[in-house]
Amino acid sequence: MSKDTTLQASIADLLSVLPTAWSLKSSSLWRADNPAAGHCGVTALVAHDLLGGDILKTPYRDIWHFYNVIDGRRWDFTESQFDAPIQYEDMPSNRDEAFGDTNAEQYAHLTQAVRDLLDRAEQNDRNGQVS
User: Fold this and answer.
1) Is 28 domain-assigned?
2) Average pLDDT of the chain?
3) What is the pLDDT of residue 127?
4) Domain count of the chain?
5) CA dist., res. 66 & res. 85, Å (int)
6) Domain interval for residue 16
7) Residue 45: closest CA among 60, 32, 56
8) Of 12, 19, 52, 62, which is the most exposed, with the fewest CB atoms less than 10 Å away?
9) Residue 4 counted as domain residue
């Protein structure tokens, strides 16, 4: 898929590529044993780009945690970073607030990494290969 085209992904597609896309370049808190660490804001933005919906937030310990609502269902792509259950308050948020949790370089890196992995998976599917 061309980088100039709007990339439409499914939730399953996004779930499958995120663990590989996350890195120290997309969050300074990334760890090999906890790849989702520090990725909530940037991941909520990328998911919003690809899947639409809304960005919500909830307090977790002393931080804001960002996640998505898509077609009326909560999707927290980074909940695995936490060692305790999240008590979701589903407070409305927006792109500006979520962007406050990341920076332009991390957002650009994760956006490109996700797009590249989705493109590769799509090409493999077309060619009958396993991604």
Assistant:
1) yes
2) 91
3) 81
4) 1
5) 15
6) 11-123
7) 56
8) 62
9) no
Q: Is the pLDDT higher at 130 or at 12? A: 12
Three-state SS at 68: strand
| The two three-digit tokens of residue 72, written as one number | 């009326």
Does any domain span residue 115?
yes
Residue 130 pLDDT greater than 60, yes or no: no
Distances (CA, A) of 10 to 17, 28, 48, 102, 103: 11, 27, 12, 24, 25
Range of weakest confidence among 5-9, 63-67, 122-126 = 5-9
Helix (H) or strand (E) holding 24: none
pLDDT tens-place string over residues 5-28: 334 579 999 999 999 999 999 999
Measured CA to CA in angstroms, residue 118 lies from 6, 8, 20, 113 at distances of 12, 9, 11, 9
Instruction: At 12, list the tokens.
Output: 């399953």
